[in-house]
Structures are given as structure tokens and as C-alpha cells.
Amino acid sequence: MQTIQVKDKQFAVSIPAAQIAEQVKRVADEINRDYAGKHPIFLAVLNGSFIFAADLLREVTLPCEISFVKLASYQGVNTTGEIREVIGLNTDITGRPVIIVEDIVDTGLTMAHMIDTLKKQNPASIDVCTLLVKPDKLQVHLDIRYCAMQIPNDFIVGYGLDYDGFGRNSKDIYTLI
Ligand code: IMP
Questions:
Q1: pLDDT tens digit string along 91-136?
Q2: Which of 84, 137, 145, 146 could form a disulfide with 127 if both were Cys (CB 3.0 to 4.6 A apart)?
Q3: Nearest CA owner, ligand 1 atom 16
Q4: pLDDT confidence tier of residue 76, bands split at 50, 70 and 90
Q5: In this structure, which residue's CA is closest to atom 8 in ligand 1?
Q6: What is the domain-level CATH number for residue 44?
Q7: Do the domain assignments include residue 132?
Q8: Atom 9 in ligand 1: residue holding the nearest Cα
Q9: How far is residue 99's CA from residue 80's CA, in Å, rounded to a whole number?
Q10: CA of residue 82 to ligand 1 center, whole Å
């Protein structure tokens, strides 16, 4: 079993690069088919989605744009959870079909909040395209139209995803052991 050390933790390979590439291509093909005749704008959520977004966009054959946003965390005063505010959106999405590109949907709270924020700008439509979902951890109802892979409730790194800032540069995805 191929393992890596990231900071103080050991991880074992769980999704090899070839399998990731296959699923990224499948999702891009679905987008190419569903968005034929449209000019979507992809909104990639940094930092985690940077590798997925780069690979996905190179498989998209539609005329399209991409913009990058970040989520700034702060403690919500009236909520129990952490609210992550969308920052850096400097593109007008009014009347545009938007595809959010995310690395992983865990509880789904981040994505639900992001969708609510973007809706205020009246885009024509919003679809979610995520590399990974942990279905057993979802806490909110989310309509995830495009999902490359579903995974169990384990903590993973690689292909853009990090553990405490490290591990993003691995080509394969690794699971904490
Ligand atoms: P959610 O609001 O719980 O869905 O949080 C999603 C965010 O948590 C993702 O964008 C990641 O930044 C982070 N995250 C969730 N699970 C993992 C993981 O297994 N590895 C690395 N980051 C993760």
C-alpha cells in the first residue's frame, strides 16, 4: 500500500490519479452535453478546487469563462456553525448560467450558504459541480448536479485538498490511516 506522511499524519492512497482523470472527464462530458448552446461561467472555490478546476476546464469544450472566489470564515453570531462568506467575486453573474466548482462537499453548509449568496445576484441558474461528496455527512438538502466521486466519511488529502495547508500537490487522493 502506497502511503505518504503529511505533517504528523499518515495517509494511504485511495483514489489513483488515473481514476480521478476518468471521473473528471465524465463530469465534463455531462456539462458539455447539458450546457450545449450556453456560455456558462464557472466559479471555482479556492483553495481546494484549483487542480480540479484546471483539469475540468480543459475537458470542457463550450465557450465559457472561469472566475475564482474564496470563502472567508467567521463565527456566525446567530448560528451554531461557522459561516463562510464569499469574497472576491468581481464578475457580474446577473442573468448568467453559473457552475460552482468545489473540491469536496462534507456537511454541505458551505455550499448551501454560497448558493444563497449567489442567488442574490440573480444568475440565470446555479449548478454545483464537486469533485467529491461525503453523502453520510450531509446536513442540509443540496441538489448536487455534477459529482465526480462519492467517498466515505474519511479525511482525505491530495489533488488540491489539504491537511493543515499541506498535501495539495499529490496527484492521487490519500485517506487518513
Ligand atoms: P462543508 O461546509 O462541511 O461541506 O465543508 C466543505 C469544506 O471542508 C471543503 O471545501 C474543504 O475545504 C473542507 N473539507 C471537508 N472534508 C475534507 C477532507 O476530507 N479533506 C480536506 N478538506 C476537507
A1: 999 999 999 999 999 999 889 989 999 999 999 999 999 999 999 9
A2: 145
A3: 106
A4: very low
A5: 106
A6: 3.40.50.2020
A7: yes
A8: 104
A9: 28
A10: 13
How many domains is the chain built from? 1
CA of 143 from ligand 1 middle (Å) equals 17
Taking only the tens place, the pLDDT of each residue in 23-60 is 999 999 999 999 999 999 999 999 999 999 999 999 99
Active-site positions? 106
Cis before 169 (ω within 30): no
Query: Is residue 32 within 8 Å of residue 60, measured between CB atoms?
Result: yes
Look up the pTM and report it: 0.95
Three-point CA angle 143, 105, 98, nearest 5°? 55
Angle formed by the axes of helices 50-59 and 17-34, nearest 10°: 60
Decide whether any atom of ligand 1 lies within 6 Å of the 105 Cβ. Answer: yes
Q: Is 107 in the pocket of ligand 1 (CB under 6 A)?
A: yes
Write the DSSP assignment of 37-92 as a string of letters: T---EEEEEETTTHHHHHHHHHH--S--EEEEEEEEEEE-SSSSSEEEEEE---S-
Encoded amino acid at 95, one letter: G
Q: Residue 64's domain spans which residues? A: 17-153
**100 close to ligand 1 (CB < 6 Angstrom):** no
| Residue for grid cell 469533485 | 131
Whether 43 contacts 118, CB under 8 Å: yes
